[in-house]
User: Fold these one by one.
Assistant:
Number 1:
Amino acid sequence: MRRELTISDQRIDEQALGKGRAMSAGMGAAVYFVGVVRATEEGRPIAALEYEAFQPMAEHQFHLLFDQAETRWPLESVRLVHRLGRVAAGETALWMEVVAPHREEAFAACQFIVSEMKRVVPIWKKAFPLA
Amino acid sequence: MPVSVLVLFCSDQAVSGCYKSAVQVRVHFYSYFKDLAGLAEVTESVAPGSRLEDFLQKLFLRFPKLAAMKKSALVAVGIDYQAGDYVLAEGDEVSLFPPVQGG
């Protein structure tokens, strides 16, 4: 399985990521997920979220999740980008894509990775209220 | 006849009379645990053979604001999560942090 992982404070370029999609002839499904910073946090308006990571462990834990996904579904590729630092409301904080032969496994793997990420990957966020 | 045995742990191997050097463990705090601890990292000495759960009890005594979070705290050694029965070794780096919130 091909994998690309980026954890960075650079803005996520969704167009470039979309153009970078590669699918071999046997692949019939590409599922991607975009996590966007909401304008409210716990009911209060916010300007931004600031993401912090324990980066070496975050990368390692992401790869462990990719390993698990690879054993459960016949995936051709996983690409994931997680933003760090200050991310304004409305901006993308997480982008991920799974390519598989069929939609069932692509949806399932995408859901699995995002859900497990929220359980084991050491990334935290802090809300900045509107001034 | 009863025999008393005194075992000394010390951090300097050059000191005579030491049974074995204490283990130096670096501790890192992340997210709001840094604020609760008042620092981002600290080095602690523990006796050889100490388990992670015993070490954490010691740490919570030193940082009482963190003790309130011990049920939800996540603990890693290096870049892997470890259970309380993990035996600490020289050079281990322990990380303590709240539940993760990525995405």
Number 2:
Amino acid sequence: MDANAQAAQKKKVSHAIMMIVLVAVFFLFIFPLILVIINVFKTKADITSNPLALIGAHGFTMENFPKAMEKMNFLVVFKNSLIVTVCATVLTLLVSSMAAFVIVRNNWKACNLLFSGMVASMVIPFQVLMIPLVSLYGGIFGVLNSRITLILMHVGFSASMATFMFHGAIRTNVPMELEEAAFIDGCTRWQTYWKIVFPLLKPTIATVAIIDAMAFWNDYLLPSLVLGRKELYTIPIATQVFYGTYSTDIGLVMAALLLAMLPILILYLFLQRYIVEGVTSGAVKG
Amino acid sequence: MKRNTMSYKVKQFLMFAGPATVLFFAVVILPFVYGLYLTFTSWDGISKTKPFVGLANYLAAFKDAAYWQALGRTFIYSAIAVILVNVVAFLLAYLVTSGIKGQNFFRAGFFVPNLIGGIVLGYVWKFVFNRALVSVGQALSIGALSTSWLATTNGAMLCLIIVSVWQYAGYMMLIYVAGFMSVPKSLMEAAQIDGCTKSQATWNVTVPLMRASFVQCLFLTITRCFMVYDVNLSLTKGEPFNSSVMAAMHVYNQAFTYKNYGTGQAEALILFVVCAIVGVTQVYIGKKGEVEA
């Protein structure tokens, strides 16, 4: 056997070993989710007697789903999560890209102050702000229990990071010459922004949208502090409340958990490439 | 067009940055400053007055044994979880950049836990620990598995660490993958021509050039682990016997359950300062030795 063939052989073996390791770890990673999926279709007694069996002794059941949907008020809760996530994401994109534009293009004191404040604030964790937030907006202004408050708070919290990312994108990807040409052609700054700058920011818009939408969709702590009324609950809060009430009815719990995970998993099936890319570029830039 | 007048500047600034500025101040700056003020008052969350108490809250925080226990526990948990998350993430990144078949599929798969919120994750794993593992343990009569790990003090911590590794490894893997990709292939080849084996080349050439990825992953995992709340709430709820209450949960309970807003806020600030010191020190040390390709 010559050296090349030997090397090829060695590579094959190492690839086979790596493949086995990867498949094993992959199985560990999705095992909890598979467990939920197989147990959704079992009766409570079957889950208790053997949670690992593929099909329960009493056979296949579809009963858990409609019951959990009804008790969790899933359609309403889903609608709430959707409204909050979509509105907050769109607002964050608009508000922060606009702010980034004026910050990058003008060396004014207010711009520098705002930008350095935003960058510095990125290290402050939510847990430091939650108590004053509740006492200010709950105690003094009394604006909690409203979807609009939650949306605006989401925007306020994510504005720093988003502005920071748009700042980088405008500085490196939007040529000044284009804006000057637009100015000569008679565009106002406002028109220049919407017609020239904003369309050029598409990749960053996608990244920020993905990161923020996922964060808003999954957030628990802030919505749980803001939303006290049942009809405003988002999916994470509803899941938590549901678990508190029905934790013994394990079949229902399985169905509720699957329902809570399903929307984003389905979305991931279609947008997987964009989500992975967006999260990576967001993390590396941030 | 008068581009230098004050009114032009103010108009431009408000038109573009006005909404962001208002929201940012209302949600971040104002609460932060107001939070500082709260630490000097004893407010119960209901009454109209907030009596000024000076440094009493900080004293109470320093005397709060449960808080320091929670903080110590958070330290131990974070130290173990941060190391494990990064080791697992790095190894996975190494495997999925080695040119193996289906590497994009694996990358996408390992990221799945990150899509799901902490609350839901915690309940899913609670089922795994309380039911699935116990049923395996009983069927095969393995002593260590036949009772739920969540019912014991160390077990609950172990469970939290396992879930955190599972939750964050895929995300950090993506950052390490980006790091691996940023190192030019030619350097690896040059090292191999000079007689390095592939693992030697990885260790001596690629890893030092990926230092920025390490710094970033460590910073992200440290800050996230220190502030863990969602998974803590759904997986263990602090049980058994408050033995798995992490610092953030203690702060939450102090303020919203026991209604000691001032003390809670003081403890939150201390937690933030500790976390910031650890995170920033790590970044400082990490950046100091950065190598350029």
